[in-house]
Every structure is written in C-alpha cells, then in structure tokens.
Amino acid sequence: MTGPADPAGLLALAGRTALVSGSGGAIGAATAALLRAAGARVLGVDLPGHEPPAGVEALPCDLGDAAALAALGPALAARDAEVDLLVHCAGITRDAVLWKMDPREWDQVLRVNLESAFHLLRLVVPAMRRLRRGSVVLVASINGERGKFGQANYAASKAGLIALAKSAARELGGFGVRVNALAPGWIDTPMTARLPEEVRKVALAESALGRLGRPEDVARAILFLCSDLSSHVTGQVLRVDGGQCTA
Questions:
Q1: Are 136 and 86 in contact (CB under 8 A)?
Q2: CA gyration radius, the chain
C-alpha cells in the first residue's frame, strides 16, 4: 500500500500544453493565467485584439469563422505545440425571446459556443490519442441544464456542450483522455454586467452561498479537472454556481 500522494504534485501541469479558447475574456483569462501558474505552456485563442494574460501565447482566431478555425492546425504545428489540455471558455450571448430572435442570432451563438468546440476537439484529439493522455473541459452553464427565459440559443448551445462532453468522454476514454463539462452559474464578468440589475438580484437570491461567482472560482475548478487530482473523473458535469442549481 502506497502512502498519500503530494497534492501539489497532483496539481502541477509541468510538461503539459494547454489550448484555452476565449482567453481574452474574464473566465478564459483567469483560466489561462492559472494553468500557466501551474506549469503548463498555454496558448490562448480569441478574436484579434483580445489579448490573453502575460506569458500566454496568443493565437488570434474568430471562432465563428470556419476558415479561421481550419488555420489553427497549421498555426499549432508552426509553434511545435502538441496540445494535451483543451479548455473551451469562449462564449457569446444574443438574448431574445424565441418570437423576436433573428435566425442569424441563433446561428451565431451556436457557431461560437458549440460548433467551435467540435472543431477544436477534432484539432487536438489526434495528438491526445497518440500521447494517450489528455484532459478536455468544455465550459457550459447551468442554463444549459435548466433553460433560461430569453436565452434559447445560449441555453441550447450549452446543453449541446454537455452532450458533446459526455459523448467524447465515451469515445476517448480508451485512449486515456478525459472529457468533462463545467457549468457555472452567475459569474461577475463584463458579459453579465450588461444584464439588468433585477436579473442579478434573482441570481444572488438563488445562491446557497449568498454570493455570486468570480472568474477565479471557475478557473480553480478547471485546474482541478485538468490536473491529476481528477484522474478518475470523466463524462461529468461539475457545477460552479454557489448552489444556484441544486436539482
């Protein structure tokens, strides 16, 4: 019987290469910075001009553009980057009730939030299968589990990420690759700051902890799912919501 492992060692990501989408946003930036602090080489994917944190290598890309996504493969090869950690944080909202939602707003949210995750997985899975290791975290939302008034496109995209994570976990488990979804509740970011104050108050009232989330709350959970601390966790949905959604 072996003794207890070193917790710090289990969290260390030295020798790993992470690709973080949405690295210029609040959650993506917090995640990229934390993974780098844990020892990983981190490449950040986001729109041109949306710079990642210091020390993170920028890969400018419009995740809603199929041609731009296709160019990521050669860009990674040029950097000699074999990605074995993928974190998909990128996401947008275009809120409206169904009868007022422009079909273009539906398409745009599904392309950026969900379809890009499929393309990123296809990009990194060959290296993960060859290395016989890897961890993927798709950042979904509790609204992908429970639905949300005025967010049919966003909720559908996040529900799709959950189903994608569970399916990919089954397909890739035999190669030593783990895939999980993470479902934040309300997180204080520039995106949520644009919502009406009454919506924020409802989220706060729902919270069992009596506070709203911060980007670093999500980043720490992502580090757990990327690290060896979660070596027997795959195909799961981890809520980081302060108890907003407890069903």
A1: yes
A2: 17
Is 23:44 a contact under the CB 8 Å cutoff?
A: yes
Show the domains of the chain with their CATH numbers: 11-237 (3.40.50.720)
Among 91, 89, 134, which residue's Cα sits nearest to residue 111? Answer: 91
Catalytic amino acids? 154
pTM metric for this prediction: 0.95
Check if the beta carbon of residue 88 is closer than 8 Å to that of residue 139: yes
pLDDT (tens place) for every residue of the chain, 247 residues total: 456 778 888 899 999 999 999 999 999 999 999 999 999 999 999 999 999 999 999 999 999 999 999 999 999 999 999 999 999 999 999 999 999 999 999 999 999 999 999 999 999 999 999 999 999 999 999 999 999 999 999 999 999 999 999 999 999 999 999 999 999 999 999 888 888 899 999 999 999 999 999 999 999 999 999 999 999 999 999 999 999 998 6
CB 35 within 8 A of CB 223: yes
> How buried is residue 98: exposed, middle or buried, by Cβ count under 10 Å (0-12/13-18/19+)?
exposed
Residue for token pair 């790993």: 16
Q: At what angle do helices 26-37 and 215-226 cross, to 10 degrees?
A: 50
**SS3 (DSSP) at 237:** strand
Cβ-proximal residues to 98 (8 Å cutoff; 6+ apart), any chain? 152
